[in-house]
Give the backbone structure.
Amino acid sequence: MDFIDLAAQQKLILGQLEGNIKNVLNHGQYVMGPEIKVLEKKLASYVGVKHAIGCASGTDALLMALMAYGIGPGDAVFTTPFTFIATAEVIALLGATPVFVDIDPDTFNISPVKLEQAITALKTQNSSLYPLPVDQKEALVPKGIIPVDLFGLPADYDRIGAIAKEHNLFIIEDAAQSFGGDYYGKKACALGNIACTSFFPAKPLGCYGDGGMCFTGDDGLANVMESIRIHGKGDDKYDNIRIGINGRLDTLQAAILLAKFDIFPDEIEKRREAACQYNDLIEAVNGSLVTPKTPEGFGSAWAQYSLLAQDEKTRNTLMSNLKKQGIPTAIYYPKPLHMQTAFAGFGYCKGAFPVCEDCADRIFSLPMHPYLSLEVQQTIARGLVMPVE
Ligand SMILES: *Cc1c(COP(=O)(O)O)cnc(C)c1O
């Protein structure tokens, strides 16, 4: 059994994939070929924002977004510790400081209540109000928030937006997992000042390598990110006007994404059906497992289907029982970012973000993709019957 079945998808669109790849081989414009603009236009229109800027990965998308805001040393960017390393890595890479904020236990996304506490604590330099990074020589300047739409479920942007407005902070939506999700009628990737998604093969819309995209409705930010993507280019080919990166999306990956996008809306529907089916099946066999809830008005892209077990021991037993039956599982994420060695310099302690730490001990994810059959889901659910001591 596959954790993600990319082969089933490939079978459905093989003709289109081969045709699109062949077109690129024929025209030979491997870098910034015509497929890039076609894809950007299509995805911008799907998401409902003016600008889409293809780039080399989800990580580069986040980096380009922060660079567009000129983020650097002395700046604080608020984010969640319950995410993939890239979210906070790019903040630190630019010399800025990630200020972690605990999550909501029902959605696994950044808690708006705690976000407000963290902003107040930072502004008053009072870490008794909320855990702050230590050893900052000067007071940090709060600049922005990177909420993450974890597992495909958008964060609570109405509440986060109100806080951002009050404190004059930007919002960069980390939509690496949520392309295809929605929030009160708006699509994921349209929920911040800039949104960043990833086309890593395992994401809801994945290519056959690395890829990503930035989205924004702001002409100025779009212009700057297009420049940053190509070494800070200006209008004059030989005068680069800012420091940028080599952050382009490959033409071949854009061609592959165009073939995959044709069936993407249907795949999102299938993921949603599979998630509902999982909830029903699992609640029937094991009432002690917490199944994922989708709040009213939210729609998940179901990048992952994640459950909470009673405790770490039960989680590990369930996972090893499934493994014995050939059913793959994964833990996203076993180690919160504030506990990672790379961020040790920020001085966060164990216990700083108790909800996130508790989830990391109890969470695990089941196979999730659009081509899960009812029979396979039934087999997986049967493997989740509460183990007897
Ligand atoms: C995958 C992911 C990224 C990084 O995307 P890449 O394309 O792998 O660079 C960033 N944030 C989150 C939440 C992710 O899941």
